[in-house]
Amino acid sequence: MADISKIRNFSIIAHIDHGKSTLADRLILRTGGLSEREMTHGQVLDNMEIEQERGITIKAQTVRLEWNGYELNLMDTPGHVDFAYEVSRSLAACEGALLVVDAAQGVEAQTLANVYQSIEHDHEIVPVINKIDLPAADPEGVRQEIEEIIGLDASEAVLASAKSGIGIDEVLQAIVDRIPPPKGDRDAPLKAMLVDSWYDPYLGVVILVRVIDGVLKKGQQVKFMQAGTTHLIDRVGCMRPKIEQLPELSAGEIGFITAQIKEVAETRVGDTITDAKRPAPAPLPGFKEVQPVVFCGLFPVDAADFEKLRESLYKLRLNDASFSFETESSAALGFGFRCGFLGLLHLEIIQERLTREYDLDLITTAPSVVYRMHLTHSKNEPAQVIELHNPADMPDPNRIEMIEEPWIEATIYTPDEYLGPILKLCQDRRGIQKNLTYVGTGAHQRAQVTYELPLNEVVFDFYDRLKSITRGYASFDYHQIGHREGDLVKMSILVNEEPVDALSMITHRGTAEARGRGMCERLKDLIPRHMFKIPIQAAIGGKVIARETISALRKDVTAKCYGGDATRKRKLLEKQKKGKARMREYGNVSIPQEAFIAALRMGDES
């Protein structure tokens, strides 16, 4: 039985690549969670193959450490903007946070976003300045930056280098001294928060819980208050990072339980777990529901894989509550699913996991955001507002009174020399500048730009362009600020006068022509030549705004005529031309899968 005053629950928050997973590894090693030999790869807690390859954390992970008689529960959180949702869940289970800042890079956009989330949860924040052994490190400058930008007192910030193991004991001491112990009453009715759940092929659904009041024991009958289901607990334990079974979890502790649950869908994140016989009077406040921001279609290359894709999506959804999908069909691509994601990185990772873990070949349609259509009153239907996830379902333009699109507020931090190109990029994407200030001093001085931007201009390739024009030095964070009216049109792509629904998109009238021209030029290079001429057109309604033509493959029918009468050659060529025209009427153009994929990767449009 744990003494509640000796428990510390904390998370590690930071911008991408500032070293939180490496620090987590060091803490595990220092407290004897694993031996040197067992630390086979870096980032013990990043156990997904993709996490290791990309060097990012996607799922928040928990581990229990023992140090000087204290029980430390550590949560490693993702740093990428798409996974801010994972961060908010982890923070809700903790009393404090280690804020890791890179001694060479300083405070960045994501650092701020995560710190503000942490402050909202009333956390005690311990600044850790990491990577102090780098040649470019400037701990004093970063200390000032933390105080100026975030407003935290950094005079007692811990200086450390997770990679070389400098300052690790000081970090542990700061956790014990500065992060408050949890509050909770062991004798009150059980109240535990469901922080996360994942599917394990041997144990069924494993549920990560933070016990607020009461005790969780093996063999106890518990009730999930939001879902309304009851289950019998068959295992209670914690991760050190290996699984260790315990007799009970009491107030203030973080651990896991299993209860022979088959579907993760039954375990809603943020739900309150209580004793079935002696329930808590009211559930915990829980989390706000996560809203998908970007939608796109996923289709199997081989139509026979449709069922396999459905099963794989169900399995992925087991471990990722923020991902949603529904079936859809397309004339060009057959049956598939319309999926909702938190952002482009989330989309990319789900797509990669499907290809890798489930061995599927997929086609992804162009990503789109959720538009609001205000429809006028007609004699058959009343005026109404509908949400549009798929450009192919756009209603008749005559009925649309106005279209609203989602807007975001973006904060970009950048070294001064890249400011010009960034402002131009935001202007080109219909951005409205809100603010421009400078933070830091001397070599650490950077510009902080705030822009309002339409989300559909950001989902294509804004982040990639931003990284390439600033050589990776800029950092970017955003949050949604609601919908606004826009002059938007649906652009269709026609190949051989047949619309290809998978390539249709909603775009702003001002940029439609440039986009259409880019798409036609790209398709011209991608679609192989046939025996007849193929026109490729981009159209808005009935008006064609761009066109390219793929010339036909021709057999040299006049090869056998040498010299002599020109009319004979003409006759043969006329005959060939008629044949080509007839062929074009009946011929159908096969667009290879690679062409779809390449055309949908909206590269640099300029």
TrEMBL record:
Topological relation to the membrane, as annotated: Peripheral membrane protein
Enzymatic class: hydrolase
Subcellular location as annotated: Cell membrane
Residues annotated to bind GTP: 17-22, 130-133
GO molecular function: hydrolase activity; translation elongation factor activity
Limits of the Tr-type G domain: 5-183
Origin superkingdom: Bacteria
Primary localization: membrane
Substrates-to-products reaction catalysed: GTP + H2O = GDP + phosphate + H(+)
Listed InterPro entries: EF-4 (IPR006297), EFG_III/V (IPR035647), EFG_V-like (IPR000640), EFTu-like_2 (IPR004161), G_TR_CS (IPR031157), LepA_C_sf (IPR038363), LepA_CTD (IPR013842), LepA_IV (IPR035654)
PANTHER family xrefs: TRANSLATION FACTOR GUF1 HOMOLOG, CHLOROPLASTIC (PTHR43512:SF4), TRANSLATION FACTOR GUF1-RELATED (PTHR43512)
Cited function: Required for accurate and efficient protein synthesis under certain stress conditions. May act as a fidelity factor of the translation reaction, by catalyzing a one-codon backward translocation of tRNAs on improperly translocated ribosomes. Back-translocation proceeds from a post-translocation (POST) complex to a pre-translocation (PRE) complex, thus giving elongation factor G a second chance to translocate the tRNAs correctly. Binds to ribosomes in a GTP-dependent manner.
Recorded family membership: Belongs to the TRAFAC class translation factor GTPase superfamily. Classic translation factor GTPase family. LepA subfamily.
Protein name (record): Elongation factor 4
Species assigned in the record: Sphingomonas hankyongi
Originating gene: lepA
